Structures are given as C-alpha cells and as structure tokens.
Amino acid sequence: METLPNWVKVTLSSYRELISLGQLRNFANSIFVSVVTTVIGVFLAALAAYAFTKLRFPGRKVIFYLLLITLMVPAEITIPPLYLVFAKINWLNTYQIQIVPFIAPTFGLFMIRQYMISIPDSLMEAARIDGANEWQIFWRIMVPVTSPILFAFAILQFLGIWNSYLWPQIMANTQSVAPLVVTLPTLTDPTLGEIPLYGTIMAGSVLATVPFVLIFLRFQDKFISGVTIGATKE
C-alpha cells in the first residue's frame, strides 16, 4: 500500500478556521433561506397551477400568458427598482428580502401546470360528488398525484436559491444574514489583508456542496422521474 509523501499533510485546520470566522452562521443562513423559500414556493406554485389548470375563471389564459412573459425579463433589469422599493420599506439586509421575492416562482407554476394538464378532470368530479371541497381535492388528490413533479421542482428551487449570488450580494450582504456563497469570496488573511484564504475558501466550498449531494442522493429517483415526464410516449 502506497503511503503519502512526507510533504503531504492531511489537516482539518481550514475547517476550524472556517468555524472561527463565523461561517457556520452563514451556512445556517443559506439553509434557512433555501428551505423556507422552497417550501413556500412549491406550495404556492402548486396552488396556482391547480387554479390555472382545473378551475374556470375570467381571464385565466390571459393572466397565465402575462405571467409567462415575465420569464423573458432578465432579473438584472429588475434589481435597481426593486432595490429602491425594498430600501424604502427597510427590508435591506434581512431574511425576508431573500425569501419573499422568490416564493411565487412563475417557472414552477408553468412546470407543475404542464403536469397537471395530464390529470383527468373525472378524478376531481368523482371527489366533488363524494362531497370534497376544492381544498380537499387539492391537498388529498392533486398533491399526492403530482408529487413527482413537486419533488423535481423543489430540488430545482432549493439549488437555485442556494446558488444565488447576485441578489443576496446586493440586497443582504451583512455578515449576520448573508448566505455562505456571499461571504466565502470575502475571506482574507487578517494579518496580510487582501490575500484570500484559499484553504478556508476551499473548505467552505466543500461544505456548500454537501446539501447538493445529500438532497440528490435522497431524492434522485423522484427528481429523475419528474424531469423525464413527457419525454416518452406509450
């Protein structure tokens, strides 16, 4: 069995330094913001998809197409006016500014709606005959039936929020509320000043990838089944 060269030393000092610099707080910030945004975003997207797919109301198609148009607007264009709005209501450098703007994802609405279209209306009609109201139909029938696409979108939503850099860098860059991806690049040697702590940054990057691996390993079957729906026809 080969041994490591004498000049190679395995150490956890970078992780200890990561903790001493308070990056565990930023790691916890990333988890909190990503989980809350994902849970609320998936729930609201599923509700909206159910309404646009199975309910009838005036202007349904027009409203849906207007929402789809917003997907064509680059996010960078909306940041300056949104910054001014959130500054006036004192939301800068808070958790809510990292959560609230992303809890109604149009892409999630479109993704889940396309799945719900394939669910026959007769399933809901039978539930209505049995006395179920709209909430019971949504929660007890639609959510279980659409669980593959809900899980698939939940993973995409979580990873999107976790990897988000531009928005929190501008809106929430203080140490107490900033996510890990914002604070890692700012780590510099306290003695030498501008020199980055490359070892600590790499340790933080490893820590930042742990949720990706755990989530995919745990839900890979649901994710793959969700994103491949419609790829084949019987």
Automatic annotation (TrEMBL):
Superkingdom of the organism of origin: Bacteria
Membrane topology: Multi-pass membrane protein
ABC transmembrane type-1 domain residues: 27-219
InterPro entries from the UniProt entry: MetI-like (IPR000515), MetI-like_sf (IPR035906)
Xref: CDD domains: TM_PBP2
Family: Belongs to the binding-protein-dependent transport system permease family.
A Pfam family that the UniProt record links to this protein: BPD_transp_1
Transmembrane segments: 27-50, 62-83, 95-116, 137-162, 195-217
PANTHER family documented for this protein: ABC TRANSPORTER PERMEASE PROTEIN MG189-RELATED-RELATED (PTHR43744), SN-GLYCEROL-3-PHOSPHATE TRANSPORT SYSTEM PERMEASE PROTEIN UGPE (PTHR43744:SF8)
Intracellular or extracellular location(s): Cell membrane
The protein, known as: Sugar ABC transporter permease
Gene3D superfamilies reported in the protein's UniProt record: MetI-like (1.10.3720.10)
Keywords in alphabetical order: Cell membrane, Membrane, Transmembrane, Transmembrane helix, Transport
